[in-house]
Design goal:
Helices cover 39% and strands 18% of the residues. It is globular and about 60 Å long. 30% of the residues are buried.
Length: 290
Amino acid sequence: MPVRESEAFILCTYPYRETDLIVNFVSRDQGKLRGIARRARRPKSPFGSGLERLAHVRLSYFQRDNRDLVRLDRAELLDPPLFLRADYVTAVALDYISEVCDRLLPEREPNDAFFRLVALVLDKIRSTLDEIVNSQNDLRAPVQRNNVNSLTSEKPRRGMTSNAQSCGAGLWTSLTYFSLWAVRLGGWLPPIDTCIQSGTKLPESETAYFDRSQPGLFSSDFRGPNAWTISPASRKIATQMLRTSLEEIQTNDWNATTAADLRRFLNQRLEEHSEAKLKTASLLEQLAKS
């Protein structure tokens, strides 16, 4: 049996028998694969945290041409696992990325562009979690006071509270960027500035519309009773994200509701081509509204 080593992201796992796991993962050089990890459910698993969702690992495995499942031998973590630091919203976001990858990527077809997209987005989420921790530490840091009266009169340090509240914006920016480029790399992204019905340009200042029966955006002239809106600001964000790296996008004005209509449109495109509902997409939509 040939032994392979691949850089990979773990997508999901399923229990198998008493102590084993079935593992779905996407490797950089082999594409999406499925494997079996023997004894992975034992208390002293040889894989440790290497099989957690979206763990970035170097996998060693045995592969036979006539077998659907590879046999996993070792998983070496390349980055600290994100699940240890994730709150509920971040955990759902990670589940969403994993679900999209598992649904859309064909088996045994390498896709380096998509692999780099996942790595880029997870790095951004990791840096966002670092910002949250740093902001919380700033809020908890003791402040030197000269007298007892200052305990009640001192105001919060400028910018501290707003930074703590806004640092989660990077998560929603990352999710929007991931959804947009997942659709783009799949070849399913229609022109953002063109009416799919008439073929004319959509004015930048006007609201566009979309629904599940149409493969793209359209103007108010073709709006049906079940159409959703997508704002000019969201279309501008999409155009910017197609031209700019994720690290260069400013997130100061972002919150959970920013570009929510764009994410709904992109999720509809993903569901159309995966021919199934994305379970985590509706959860994220509910969290954005709460």
